[in-house]
Request: fold
Amino acid sequence: MTKPTEGRLVWNHSTHISGLIPILERLIKQNGIQTVTPGVLGRVKGHCPHLQLRVSVPIRGGFKVIARHGKTVQEVFILTNLDKEQLEETISVAMRK
Reply:
């Protein structure tokens, strides 16, 4: 029986939402996650007091996830073979630890 391989976290931006990287580092250790790529940062009008990750839309090979904290939003692209419900559960496990 082979050990599942760990996913990969891509670093192509120098800035990220506060507290996001530790969650993504735990997420890549979960089964079924191949690559996690944080994307562009943006500002929104609404205020989100706690860090939230919400699965947004499917992309080729995975899903786009929206991370929000305060008035900042960041796209995160996750390549995975999990379906939306399984990915949501995997994200909630990574956020609890």
In short: Residues 84-96 form the longest helix (13 residues).
